[in-house]
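Input sequence (109 aa), recorded before submission:
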Amino acid sequence: MHLASILRYLLPKTFTAITLWPFIIFKYKENKSDVVLINHERIHLKQQVELLVIPFYIIYILEYLFLLVKLKDHNQAYLHISFEKEAYLHQDNLNYLSTRKRWATWKNN
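Predicted structure, token format:
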């Protein structure tokens, strides 16, 4: 069984891809050609490298849990994670990563 097949059962139904450095794992093969989705996930790769990978995951999970308690809604908590806000804001700009400033996650996007 492939990792993507396993993740389909472990992750929320709404996910289409996940970035686990250094890999982007797609839920469905057809998502591999979605340039906006790929850009979104590549933004996460950049964020992960910037924070030396493990701290990224710690901050991501803690921020999600804090927001889940505060907002009492999974989708809203997910969308308000600082890493997701940056990725969603810039996912349509396919040149974003070439101009992205360091620590852009926490600067005004």
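Checked by second reader. The mean pLDDT is 91.
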